[in-house]
Amino acid sequence: MSSATRVSNESAANAAARDVLSTALCGIALRNPVIAASGTFGYGIEFAHLCDLSELGAIVTKGLSREPIAGNPSPRLWHTEAGMINSVGLQNVGVRVFIREKLPKLRAFDVPAIVNVFGYSLEDYIEVLKQLEDAEGLAAYELNVSCPNTKAGGIFFSSEPSLTAQVVSRARAVVSKRPLIVKLSPNVARIGPFATAAERAGADAISLVNTVTALTADIASRKPRIGAGFGGLSGPAIRPVALRMVYEASRAVSIPAIGLGGIFSGEHAAEFLMAGASAIQVGTASFVDPCAPIKIAGQLRQIVIRSGARRVGDLVRTLRIPGAEDPKD
Ligand SMILES: Cc1cc2nc3c(=O)[nH]c(=O)nc-3n(C[C@H](O)[C@H](O)[C@H](O)COP(=O)(O)O)c2cc1C
Question: Residue of the nearest CA to atom 18 in ligand 1?
Answer without folding.
Answer: 210
